[in-house]
Amino acid sequence: MSDPTLPVFDDLHEENEELDGLVAELSPTQWTLPTPAPGWSIAHQIAHLAWTDRAALLAATDAEGFAAEVQKALTSPDTWVDDAAREGAAQPPARLLAEWREGRAALDRALRAAPAGARFPWYGPPMAVASMATARLMETWAHGQDIADTLGVTRTPTDRLRHVARIGVRTRDFAFGVRGLSLPQEEFRVELTAPSGAHVWSYGPEDAGQRVTGTALDFCLLVTQRAHRADLALKAEGPDADQWLNIAQAFAGPPGGGRPAKGDHKGAGA
Q1: How far apart are CA 197 and CA 122, in angstroms?
Q2: Mind listing the pLDDT tens digit for each residue in 3-30?
Q3: Which residues share a beta bridge with 202?
């Protein structure tokens, strides 16, 4: 019987390789270019991915060691992510690139070797093996988008986005809760056209009274807060679904500020 988790491992590997292709030949000056994340250069973005890969590897292989890292984070909860990115970005680009490559390869081996049903500690609830890989893919894609935008590169979306879309749907209630808002009392129907055009990814009951429709790419840009709703062609039916598109957040932590709209888009996203 084939392992159902293999596709996400393979997709994570491919997502990393695509991003590697964007940064592998950058000049030292390009590594310092500011990205849409305030205060973060391209080097900060890769340093953050490398650091998070190392944290995931520790969680998968050394629970006690990971618990110690969590305690360190608790001593500076408002700055530890930025501190780690700044420390990593201070390295020469070649060393940073090598560390990122080595760390993600080690994580790939650890996730593939983990026993079925294993769960790893994390900064929130424990994560299953496939969930850990899915979360790493989402973050790699999202930070890759920051880098692509900085370099003026338009990436061709792939059906690997199904993993990001799934997290975006599953974190609906989190987005409301983290803002202290009342949770929707009913499921939504979400229908997203896959980048390949060969599928429509559907979530929720077909007869739901509220729904969201559009392309998977636009939905993933929205839930990772890499684009403003006004710049995307997503449609919402129902007041709760409409509100969700204003606050959607697939990543953990406090409410994100998101990207500003690029201009006046009357009616866009409605």
Answers
A1: 35
A2: 445 699 999 999 999 999 999 999 999 9
A3: 191
